[in-house]
Amino acid sequence: MPIRTEKDGGVWTIIHSRPQARNAMDPEHAQALYDAFLTFEADDSASVAVFWGDGGAFCAGWDLKNAAQRDPDGTDGRMSDLALAPDERGHIIGPMGPSRLELSKPVIAAVEGPAVAGGMELAMWADMRVMAETAFMGVYCRRWGVPLIDGGTVRLPRLVGEGRAMDLILTGRRVDAEECLQIGLCEYVVPEGEARAKAEELARQISRFPQKCMNADRRSLKAQHGLPMRAALHSEWTISSAMVAEEGIAGAARFAAGKGRGGDYGDI
What we know:
It is a single chain. The chain has 268 residues and is α/β, with parallel strands linked by helices. It folds into 2 domains: 3-207, Alpha-Beta Complex (2-enoyl-CoA Hydratase, Chain A, domain 1); 211-263. The chain has helices spanning 27-42, 64-67, 118-125, 152-160, 162-171, 177-183, 195-207, 211-223, 229-240, 243-256, and strands spanning 3-8, 11-16, 48-53, 107-111, 114-116, 128-132, 136-138, 175-176, 188-190. The strands form 2 sheets. It has a 6-stranded mixed β-sheet with strand order 1-2-3-4-6-9, sandwiched between helices. Strands 5-7-8 form a 3-stranded mixed β-sheet. α4 crosses α5 (162-171).
């Protein structure tokens, strides 16, 4: 199977397995990956997804061999099959699959090897990124005249700032894991071969918390971008204040009964 899901309680690891093509994305695999993340979103038992590429590569981007077969003068060359319109489930598929989904639960990208061009866009789509020390990103599609159409020009400046984003987008240069960490393009760097294990460890930690409150804070963080301060504060209150009654009071009662004293996250 090109896309498979391995489950450990509330942690789902969604695996793109097309190693013969460095996990480059064609329409078939894009659809399968999109469907896998919608299945994760719809399942109440799933809390956090880890997104991992099999075979030592996260994703080498859009499959250029497949793209070369499109007719530049016809509708298939104009990407008309990927209109920005919701499908029957109310979601929008991107050329790389899930890149236009707005999920209600977190996704952690576990990056080994290349996450370049559209693969970099998929890594940026995730909430957090764990990179192996030998992994790298880059707008490699720059050299082939293929634009960023899976959120790259939107998410990259939000993560690293406009100046750095412009550098990476205009030059298309390779960005190694350590630089990614320095500029905010990833959150963790681990030894080669350990990205998935670290991402799953983080996912298990996150899955232990009261989920409604956590996901409300996540939603508020995403919603505030670009808003004036007063509007952002109002949005935060609107999204999250109900969680005090839904989960906060019960959590306070657990603390009052002796749980989690001294910052002990192991006993909550």
